[in-house]
Structures are given as structure tokens and as C-alpha cells.
Amino acid sequence: MSKKPPLTLVEPDGTTVPPPPRDLGKPGRALWDAVQREFDVSDVCGVELLAQACSALTKAEALHAEIERDGPVLRDRRGIKDHPALKHELANRAFVVRTLTRLGLNFEPLHNAAGRPAGRRG
Question: In this structure, are residues 37 and 111 in contact, taking their beta carbons and an 8 Å threshold?
Fold first, then answer.
């Protein structure tokens, strides 16, 4: 009599997320996981673009924390000036948005859980 192989738990389809190519930091990893859950970004170019966007988001969040700590404006003997990190935070956030748009992630996700299936109403 042959032995049956032991049962293993399998995750439901669409919940497994491929690992990023490098460490992305906490905010970047959260974006990576969210995008990979909704879209199938598996080509080499797409993976690299997504990884770059995730890294930029981590940098933007770190700069944001610095700005929150110091305040959005700084005072010195010459007067008030914008925090020097403001433009870098904005540049990183703009890069994230542009890159996600170039990847086509601003359209319908692969796994759309909301709503009814398309069809005729009768």
C-alpha cells in the first residue's frame, strides 16, 4: 500500500507576492506588496522600475519625517526659508507617481474584487 503525501496549505491564488530584488525599506516594501497584489509586474524592466519607485518612496518618507521634525520653514539670521529637503521630497514623490503611471498601474488592476462581473442586465 502506497503512502499518501502529507497535505500542505496552499495560499489562495493572487495573494503570493514575489520578493523585491533588493531591500526597499518599510514604505517601499508596502508599495511593492500592494502593487504586486493588484497587478502582475513580472517582466525585468517592470520589476526594476517598480523597485526604483519603491526606493524613491522610502526616501520621500524619510525626508518627510525630517521635515516634520524641523518644520517646513527654517529661520536663520537672514530670515525665513523653505526647508531644503522639501524639494527633494517632492522630486521623489513625483518620480514615484510618474513611474507608476509609466508602468500603466493607474488603470484597472489585474484582480478587481469590487463590483459585479460585466454582463447584460436583464
Answer: yes
